[in-house]
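Dear H.,

Thanks for agreeing to be a second pair of eyes. The structure we're designing against is below in token form, covering all 456 positions.
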């Protein structure tokens, strides 16, 4: 790999004897890894586990995920292995009934991971400042199917006004991307010392802006995919000293090959491609000191719950419906966990919501049109629908949003599944079935292979 001269001048002394092995690893292959959605599937294959994440697995090769229906169904998420280390942090620091903010969340790898750690009383706000990326985030969160989640599209300074609201804040900061050199040639081309400095300053702005939203004793997880000191240890030191926090440690096994911090007074976890099977990654965990008062509970909560109740039969669309609040918003019916509904109200009054809980669908005339979010929810009651399990070819046609014909099926809404995992709905009108798969999610590739090997 042709590394930028300034990168070599800066990083070589930092790595010392490790340098030669590191450079060699940068010329090697990136491993492919996925995290399985245990609420939807169990793997039938024996895959090598990512040591620091129970649901993370390496694949022998990089398959064409686009043509695997389980990828579209939220059965797994393709995620770089090192970044799954957040699972190890949460194993130690997650608690029941927590409020978590994933501040820089798109496309959603770490948010879907956090979602796996939420108990039914916990709440995840998954935020992305760039609108187009917030939509991709929302798609991935919807596919993952956890109802305790909302997606927001706000600047950190706006969220910072929710004083003392969150128990855990993850800042997976926009960074100079050195750790992605092997995967992304663009990251090499864009790298400069000047950019590292700009990134560091932006990271500090983001951290200072969001800091008030973390409650006292709350946990900040800070991560980047870079190697330099400026964006990593020096920023952690800055958080500790300027924002007032204690640095925490995470239990790791020596066998995992995770490297320690470069600075003695900073505890952190570093991933190098020559030592761990993954890309470059940095993570540190801090506990906020001080006595920030949670002032958010004082916000007057407006109860917008609709007085109209969904007909009993529509409540049957989801499992455990007695634990959900049903409400109408912009002509669509939603279900949100009742125990978190007041928190949703706070978020709605303060932030720009992109998606929330389970969107059940909407009435068009007398017809209740079920939403894609319902099909992919882990709380979907499959028994509420006529269900049709498709072969691979028909599934790909469905995901390409092509016209389908199911003349032997009853008229009305049909839930389509692949290997019994829900994918979405069609409305069967007899001579054809209207394909309700979201237009913007469809497979666009003109090429379709004749067959694919199953991944999990
Ligand atoms: N956490 C994500 C995941 O695991 O899939 C990856 C996040 S990526 C490293 C950093 C994100 O920060 C990007 O989505 C980027 O759009 C966002 N970002 C860029 N500038 C930002 C800013 N000033 N404040 C907050 N987020 C920002």
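And this is the sequence the design step returned. I haven't edited it by hand at all.
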């Amino acid at each position: 790999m042709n590394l930028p001269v300034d990168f070599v001048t800066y990083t070589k002394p930092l790595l010392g004897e490790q340098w030669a092995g590191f450079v060699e690893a940068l010329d090697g292959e990136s491993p492919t890894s996925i995290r399985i959605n245990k609420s939807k599937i169990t793997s039938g294959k024996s895959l090598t586990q990512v040591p620091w994440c129970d649901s993370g697995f390496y694949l022998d090769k990089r398959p064409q995920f686009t043509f695997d229906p389980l990828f579209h169904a939220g059965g797994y998420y393709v995620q770089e292995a090192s970044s799954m280390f957040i699972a190890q942090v949460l194993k130690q620091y997650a608690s029941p009934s927590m409020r978590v903010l994933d501040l820089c969340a798109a496309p959603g790898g770490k948010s879907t991971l956090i979602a796996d750690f939420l108990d039914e009383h916990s709440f995840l706000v998954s935020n992305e400042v760039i609108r187009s990326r917030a939509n991709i985030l929302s798609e991935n969160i919807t596919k993952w199917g956890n109802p305790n989640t909302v997606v927001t599209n706000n600047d950190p300074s706006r969220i910072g006004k929710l004083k003392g609201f969150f128990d855990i804040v993850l800042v997976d900061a926009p960074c100079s991307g050195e750790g992605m050199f092997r995967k992304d040639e663009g990251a090499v081309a864009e790298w400069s010392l000047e950019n590292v400095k700009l990134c560091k300053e932006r990271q500090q702005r983001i951290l200072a802006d969001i800091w008030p939203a973390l409650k006292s004793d709350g946990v900040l997880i800070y991560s980047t995919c870079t190697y330099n000191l400026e964006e990593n240890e020096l920023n952690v030191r800055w958080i500790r000293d300027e924002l007032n926090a204690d640095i925490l440690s995470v239990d790791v096994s020596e066998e995992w090959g995770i490297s320690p911090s470069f600075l003695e007074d900073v505890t952190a976890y570093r991933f190098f491609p020559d030592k761990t099977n993954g890309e470059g990654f940095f993570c540190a965990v801090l506990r906020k000191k001080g006595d920030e008062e949670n002032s958010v509970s004082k916000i007057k909560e407006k109860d917008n719950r609709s007085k109209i109740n969904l007909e009993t039969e529509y409540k049957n669309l989801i499992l455990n419906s007695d634990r959900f609040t049903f409400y109408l918003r912009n002509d669509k019916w939603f279900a949100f966990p009742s125990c978190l509904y007041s928190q949703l109200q706070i978020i709605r009054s303060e932030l720009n919501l992109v998606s929330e809980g389970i969107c059940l669908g909407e009435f068009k005339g007398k017809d209740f049109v079920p939403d894609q979010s319902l099909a992919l929810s882990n709380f979907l009651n499959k028994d509420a629908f006529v269900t049709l399990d498709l072969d691979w070819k028909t599934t790909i046609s469905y995901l390409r949003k092509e016209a389908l014909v199911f003349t032997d099926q009853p008229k009305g809404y049909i839930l389509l599944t692949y290997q019994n995992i829900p994918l979405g709905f069609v409305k069967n009108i007899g001579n054809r079935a209207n394909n309700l798969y979201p237009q913007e999610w469809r497979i666009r590739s003109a090429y379709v292979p004749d067959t694919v090997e199953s991944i999990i």
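Two observations from my side: The chain has a mean pLDDT of 94. Residues 190 and 362 are 46 Å apart (CA to CA).

Warmly,
E.
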